[in-house]
Amino acid sequence: MRPIVFLAIATSTLLSADDKSVLQHTMDTRAAHYGEISRKIWEFAELGYKEKRSAELLSSELRAAGFAVVENVGGMPTAFTATWGQGRPVIGIMGEYDALPGLSQDDTPLRKPLVEGGPGHGCGHNLLGAASLFAAVTIKEWLAANRIAGTIRFYGTPAEEGGDGKLYMIRAGVFKDVDTVLSWHPSDQNGASLKSSLAMISAKFRFYGKPAHAAAAPDAGRSALDGLMIMANSLEFLREHVPVSTRIHYVITNGGSAPNIVPDYSEMFLYARHPGMPVLDGIWERVVKCAQAGALASETRMEMELINSSYNTLPNDALAALVDKNMRLVGGITYTREEREFAETIRKSLADRGRPIGSQEGIEPPQEGQGSASTDAGDVSWTVPMAEISAATFVPGVPAHSWQSAACAGMSIGRKGMLVAAKSLVLTAVDLFADPKQVEAAKASFEKRRAAFEYRSRIPAAQKPPLTYRDNK
Amino acid sequence: MRPIVFLAIATSTLLSADDKSVLQHTMDTRAAHYGEISRKIWEFAELGYKEKRSAELLSSELRAAGFAVVENVGGMPTAFTATWGQGRPVIGIMGEYDALPGLSQDDTPLRKPLVEGGPGHGCGHNLLGAASLFAAVTIKEWLAANRIAGTIRFYGTPAEEGGDGKLYMIRAGVFKDVDTVLSWHPSDQNGASLKSSLAMISAKFRFYGKPAHAAAAPDAGRSALDGLMIMANSLEFLREHVPVSTRIHYVITNGGSAPNIVPDYSEMFLYARHPGMPVLDGIWERVVKCAQAGALASETRMEMELINSSYNTLPNDALAALVDKNMRLVGGITYTREEREFAETIRKSLADRGRPIGSQEGIEPPQEGQGSASTDAGDVSWTVPMAEISAATFVPGVPAHSWQSAACAGMSIGRKGMLVAAKSLVLTAVDLFADPKQVEAAKASFEKRRAAFEYRSRIPAAQKPPLTYRDNK
Amino acid sequence: MRPIVFLAIATSTLLSADDKSVLQHTMDTRAAHYGEISRKIWEFAELGYKEKRSAELLSSELRAAGFAVVENVGGMPTAFTATWGQGRPVIGIMGEYDALPGLSQDDTPLRKPLVEGGPGHGCGHNLLGAASLFAAVTIKEWLAANRIAGTIRFYGTPAEEGGDGKLYMIRAGVFKDVDTVLSWHPSDQNGASLKSSLAMISAKFRFYGKPAHAAAAPDAGRSALDGLMIMANSLEFLREHVPVSTRIHYVITNGGSAPNIVPDYSEMFLYARHPGMPVLDGIWERVVKCAQAGALASETRMEMELINSSYNTLPNDALAALVDKNMRLVGGITYTREEREFAETIRKSLADRGRPIGSQEGIEPPQEGQGSASTDAGDVSWTVPMAEISAATFVPGVPAHSWQSAACAGMSIGRKGMLVAAKSLVLTAVDLFADPKQVEAAKASFEKRRAAFEYRSRIPAAQKPPLTYRDNK
Amino acid sequence: MRPIVFLAIATSTLLSADDKSVLQHTMDTRAAHYGEISRKIWEFAELGYKEKRSAELLSSELRAAGFAVVENVGGMPTAFTATWGQGRPVIGIMGEYDALPGLSQDDTPLRKPLVEGGPGHGCGHNLLGAASLFAAVTIKEWLAANRIAGTIRFYGTPAEEGGDGKLYMIRAGVFKDVDTVLSWHPSDQNGASLKSSLAMISAKFRFYGKPAHAAAAPDAGRSALDGLMIMANSLEFLREHVPVSTRIHYVITNGGSAPNIVPDYSEMFLYARHPGMPVLDGIWERVVKCAQAGALASETRMEMELINSSYNTLPNDALAALVDKNMRLVGGITYTREEREFAETIRKSLADRGRPIGSQEGIEPPQEGQGSASTDAGDVSWTVPMAEISAATFVPGVPAHSWQSAACAGMSIGRKGMLVAAKSLVLTAVDLFADPKQVEAAKASFEKRRAAFEYRSRIPAAQKPPLTYRDNK
Questions:
Q1: What are the tens digits of pLDDT across the range C357-416?
Q2: Average pLDDT, integer, range A425-454
Q3: Calpha distance A166→A160 (Å, rounded)
Q4: Residue C143 near residue C434 (C-beta atoms within 8 A)
Q5: B98: pLDDT strictly greater than 60
Q6: For the residues of C116-128, what is the DSSP string, one character each?
Q7: Among C241, C373, C249, C269, which residue's Cα sits nearest to residue C311?
Q8: Ordered alpha helix ranges (H), B45-121
Q9: Is the sign of the CA dihedral D283, D285, D291, D292 positive or negative?
Q10: In this complex, do B215 and D257 lie within 8 Å of one another by their Cβ atoms?
Q11: Contact residues, C window 260-279, toward A, CB-based 8 Å cutoff
Q12: Are D230 and C233 within 8 A, CB to CB?
């Protein structure tokens, strides 16, 4: 392994492009190792809070690199932090590594599950964790080689897909001393993001009634399904009277056991989303009233279990500008002939192809916007200044949470995107370490955007991490 | 006017058939007068609580006959009592005289409104009041002529059709000292009734929301119509889980004013019915919960105004047997050739002709059964022993509340039925006066059927008679 | 094994009570053998269309007794017939042997599953099959011993619990040549039945939509859940406008897979019932319209799979009278002290204890009535004259489809009831063989009740037996 | 009356500001006359298609000024055109004059209806018609005085508020030969508009069922209200799956007549809107499917009567620029002390005051945007190039369709706004007459925006103008 560059710099300015070029070059020589790690995690394909082998692989690499690892953060067996260095600033890099149910897929451009119905890395979190690891280790070496003060920390954040590991890590206090967090996510394009995600609250609404023989004594029963149906109908009437950017969607996870018995149990799983949490709070209150109305009208009992609560992402203008500058140094991705063929084949399976092949070669400028996804990184972004980076790990047009993205995440295209991400993280981090004004600017942007709003998770303080939330899937 | 028969009887046995025959004969000679009174009320066609001229006509006849008239009973301008005699027993006869909206009809067998859209006597209450008057006056003369102790009282009961005058008369205490009440109703057959009616509660449910421009700011509005719709949907889910003999039916009397405004007001008019009031109480509680759920889920305010509450009729076995015996003396109705032609013509307009022409000549035996109508006489029947008599004022097959019944009520067929009713009332009353054991038997039957159940009206004590309930029709 | 009695009778009168007493006595000596068979099937506890070992045990016994066995009737591996004799009359006896899911229970008066969540004989079909076997073999021996003409046939009918094996056996023609069928069922009382069951149709309604990201592009999706919900709402509105004795009940067996995806699939499982099939046909048409409306309004596709269709049972007056007479010879059941203790313990676990201990000692007279269950024996009863017998295999008050009934079916109380059933079947069958007038009377009763109505199964002709219907439970 | 200015101009350039200043000055001297006309129409306060006196007043003024009047256009008694001049270009000016129900209001800043519940000019159409008249006459005189070729035409367009008079005028062909149409509307601000309105379709959905006594035979009825309710529920489920800018809102205009009768008639009045007509077409199709589903599921019959169909307004960039330039010459409105007090008082009655007092003194620059209202002028804008002008006839913050706007429309503030409008129309028209390139530019802008889309009204060709649409209000 080639040693990290020694930089005779005064740590109060940005690194020169030349220095950064040397750093990138060094990383190219190490990319294969981290690519293999991403492949292993892709093969593990472990679901949220079950990512034992993935977390272990990442933390053992970090430990080997000299990081101090703290495990079982916030009571979550697959959450950990790995810290190296001392003094300020403290720069964090987040890594995720959980897979998605039902998306098992080989690294082929045609649908081919590895395990029928099994989980797969349809959101590319295998790359996410591995690139962040790659960046953290590189930064550590750079700090050490240049004897620069400061602390680099890797956050091993489990169960991003619906388990909200980051919320419980925030609650555990591990983000308290960090100055800036760098975050990236697999995508079909490259660029620093100024887009926001949707704030989201989700819950399971459970109704408890009184069973009775549905033919012999329907009047003796109190139908838990009726309670749920009245709630659902009420929600539909609600839609007209919430702000247009609201989203409310639900499925019925238990709609009664047998037709000849008045159901004494039913369950709805519901998400509500809005671009801003305070507005969402008001909407959520009304959702709960609909549930209470269902119970009231049907003489059943309703219990709500809050499952998720994610803030919308708070963009950071200073960090976006800094990332953008660095990504333009890193550059985009050029496909080999084989990769291009893979890309063309996989795009044939898409209904809507969006951006064209070739677009992955460029870097998109940061742009305000409203995404439609939700993520627990949103909560981090309201806690500390956070950068958000996209890298084109997926063929242009391939959406996340698809078998196509799972395929890309297992082959060279995914690994090329991962390298773009790792380099962008490293170059941005070294700027932050080298120039305190950058950290100040990030903080100023943070304060301006949040406008004195105090973050408070909507998850009740007593609620434990939903470690088994994937069991009933 | 021919004088009433003098009877040298010991007042401890039933009258002989011969004596009754003389009484009937006397009544035949006076029938034309009371027939004219029925025709006048038919022409007045006054709606509930508006029956000024009808009530005045009846009370002036009673006053002329020597009865002591008390007007404005229970705060109702068209409710009155007329009493004659002294001592026990006190026998009551009830008379109704309100018309129905929209049933204006000439005395012809083809549809021909007298006033387009105007009210008409589709329930034959013009005959009801006149026959009861006829009976009361006849009984008074018979009591006087024979110097028999006892009191005869006519109850002028307004607004039977949805205004529930009798409930407020009961509340006013005018039924407290009565021993037995005789009641009759126009029908398409003759007979003493053992059938029950349905207990009923009705109310208007009003929702109050917050208006907003439906295109510009639907989220600023809280839809009163949504509240009502959620209530309605909840009620539909309720249907499966109430006893099968329950009836719940409603209309939407206000569903918003203009499509481009989020409705801030809506109204539902709902009836619930069941054969027994205690069960209905439980059902009603659940109906109200559905309304509350509508308000809760839509963030609107709900107000309920109770409109009606009628008990199911409590049949009286002893009185039914006594009436049956007397009706067999009175006999049924034979049509003239013109009446038969009228009957045949009118029956052509019926979808379902039910019993045949000729059936009005007989007397049906008393039979248990469950009717589907509701009446405020039900409340009287839980207060004192009450007889219920049917007389064939309508052509066989003609249902109540139809233009066909309004036509019959205005011509000779109606008047023939009215005479059967008046005679049956008289013969039964004289038996009750003549034989104290009959009154005892009626009371025993009453106690047996009600089984210690204490009558209590579901109308709140503070609620006043709905004197204007016909205004918004 | 004690030989069957030889009867020097003229086959044109009923057997004498004495002869029957001898027959019963013989059966007592063989009861243990058949009790063991019932226990084995109880232990097999095989679900509908999976009753391989149960069917094999029964058919091997019949084959050993000289019956000609036909297997795989109507394409159902566990349906068979076993026939002995020749000429008329042909008398059939039906045997069922399928268990119920989730009712695994030891032969103890306290809840104790043998296999947690496993199947159990909560409807006592282990006794049903074994008693019918016992009867068939006894009758065969009696026919042989007395050289009486006629044919006895055992119908091995699988999957009564929702699989409707008998419908496919009727379709296969195996009931065409039979004169009378004798049927019995475990119960908590003894007696010939004149009660009817409810005609029933059940189906799975499946909606197919178009998936979309529920937050990003809800307008691109067509929700299969919406289709189902609109259907469900429509059904609730339907309730007011079907005859009061109708039953419609449903559960939602698939209500979408994940909240963040517009569901492209949903499923409702629905039963509709009514005392008569022609009326039910009309109701069913309207149920289907509700489903079509759901698809129409939501722009989804709806597919209906008919699962069950059972006729109401057509009682047979002549057979009920004959059975009643014979059951009075057989008599009821007396408990030992241990059995009484078992009964008292098990009754403590019942919310509603119904008839008292001791009632199982008597024979209930046949009585018209309307049950609330449904059975595929109903279809047989519209095809040929059918007797229906109840025997007190369950402790009084114990309902079918409970762990309590599963417990009884595995111990001596169940076996005592089974003996009552077997004897009643035998005595009735010998009367039918001995006296042709009895068969004529049964046929006359059948023709009178069905009143020219022609049986036709509501299952489409092309639909195969749902051999895997228990797989997705 | 002061004569119009004579202009020695070459008709191929815009008029100079000086010449325009002279024109404005002339108009100031005539403003009182047209102010009085606006006041008369304000007092007439005639509803859509009932505007006889208003239309007569306007057309008689035009006739007097030498215009050729064509009445009863498109079969509408209150629709007319008035034309003067010859040759091209043909410039149209539209005038509306219908009032709104329920908005009767005196010219006071406190709520004070002139006629309780009566109609009033809450949309300021009294000003609209009068200012357009003022402009048309002025232009005619200017054309005549300067002997300029070209034709000026006034379009008397009735029933803008829901009656869509313009659609039937387009259909009658009176817009075929026009080159450019100038349109203005009362507002609380001044400016040329580039905003669009919403395309809208509205209809009455009527359900026809089968009546039955709701207690005696609910199963014999087919509820028209059920049909409507199922439609309504289906619409609520639809909301999630239409584009977010869609609006669907409805009221129930008939929800059954009496609770004790299964409703055989019901009616819903529904609006659907979207920024673009082709998308709205697709949404409308789905609305109709919901209605059909309601009928299907309830076994009722559904009839739809299309009431309105308005296109979104197609802005015209060239005309907006031209209007903007002229309005800056005209300038805004300065209040007297009394007017300011009036404005301050009236603003106290507003929940949301929007723009401040003083803002009416300026001219807003043209800006793209999406309004939430709909208008039949939208259809004109897809037929010919159309300018849209706003003038501050209402106190800043006062919304249209309010008693506050009706008050303003009757007093000096309204008349000042009307003068701004009239001048802006005149100055723009003379530019169009003077400079053919302006008309060409307007046409080019029109072609560019409509992008080959061919206008076609959604009103069926056979449908007549809804001349009585205000009768059932």
A1: 999 999 999 999 988 889 999 999 999 999 999 999 999 999 999 999 999 999 999 999
A2: 96
A3: 7
A4: no
A5: yes
A6: TT--B-TT-HHHH
A7: C373
A8: 52-64
A9: negative
A10: no
A11: 260, 262-263, 268-271, 273
A12: yes
User: How far is Cα B348 from Cα B337, in angstroms, rounded to an integer?
Assistant: 17
Tell me if A196 sits within 8 A of A312, measured CB to CB: yes
Nearest CA to D408 out of D396, D390, D420, D395 is that of: D395
Determine the Cα–Cα distance for residues C431 and B227; give it in Å rounded to an integer.
68
- Please report how the helices C125-145 and C412-434 are oriented relative to each other, as an axis angle in degrees rounded to 10: 40
Binary contact (A248, D239; C-beta < 8 A):
no
Mean pLDDT of D345-374: 92
Contact between A286 and B299 using a beta-carbon 8 Å cutoff:
yes
Q: How many CA atoms lie within 13 A of A330 on its CB side?
A: 35
C283 in Cβ contact with C241 (< 8 Å) = no
Look at strands B199-208 and B301-310 and give their pairing.
antiparallel
Across the interface, do A249 and C273 touch by the CB < 8 Å criterion?
A: no
Q: The tokens 């140094």 sit on which residue?
A: A329
Strand pairing report for A90-95 and A180-187: parallel
CA distances for D170 relative to A464, B442, D186, D377, D455, angstroms: 67, 80, 23, 10, 11
Nearest to B100 by CA among B402, B377, B398: B402
One-letter amino acid at A301 equals R
pLDDT at B117: 86
Give the span between the Cα atoms of A129 and A135, in whole angstroms. 10
Length of chain C: 473
Q: Is residue C473's pLDDT more than 50?
A: no
- Confidence class for position D473, pLDDT limits 50, 70, 90: very low
Q: What is the spatial distance between Cα C438 and Cα C454, in angstroms, rounded to a whole number?
A: 23
Selecting from A198, A233, A253 the residue whose C-beta is nearest the C-beta of C233 gives A233
Work out the widest C-alpha separation in chain D, in whole angstroms. Answer: 88
Parallel/antiparallel/unpaired status of strands B180-187 and B90-95: parallel
Q: Which residues of D touch A370 (CB under 8 A)?
A: none
Tokens of B405: 């019944």
Nearest in space to A430 (alpha carbons), one of A3, A111, A16: A16
| Pure H helices in C45-163 | 52-64, 125-145
Distance from CA of C290 to the nearest CA of B (A): 15
Tell if the CB–CB gap between B240 and C239 is shorter than 8 Å. yes
For C410-433, letters b (16+ CB in 10 Å) and e give bbebbbbbbbbbbbbbbbbbbbbb
Measured distance CA(D413)–CA(D407) in Å, rounded: 10
User: Of B221, B238, B297, which has the smallest distance from its Cβ to A234's Cβ?
Assistant: B297
The model's pLDDT over C279-334, given as tens digits with 9 standing for 90+, comes to 999 999 999 999 999 999 999 999 999 988 999 999 999 999 999 999 999 999 99
CA atoms within 13 A on the CB side of B320: 20
Amino acid (1-letter code) at residue B190: N
What's phi and psi for A172, nearest 5 deg? -75, -5
Buried b (16+ CB within 10 A) or exposed e, B406-434: bbbbbbebbbbbbbbbbbbbbbbbbbbbb
Q: Which residues in chain D are contacts of B202 at CB distance < 8 A?
A: 259
DSSP code for D72: S
Which of the other chains make 3 or more beta carbon contacts under 8 angstroms with chain B? Answer: A, C, D
How much is the ipTM here?
0.88
Looking at residue D102, its pLDDT comes to: 87
pTM (two decimals) = 0.91
Radius of gyration of chain C (CA): 24
Nearest CA in chain C to A265: C251
- The two most distant CA atoms of chain A are separated, in Å, by 87
Instruction: List pLDDT tens digits, range B114-124.
Output: 998 899 999 99
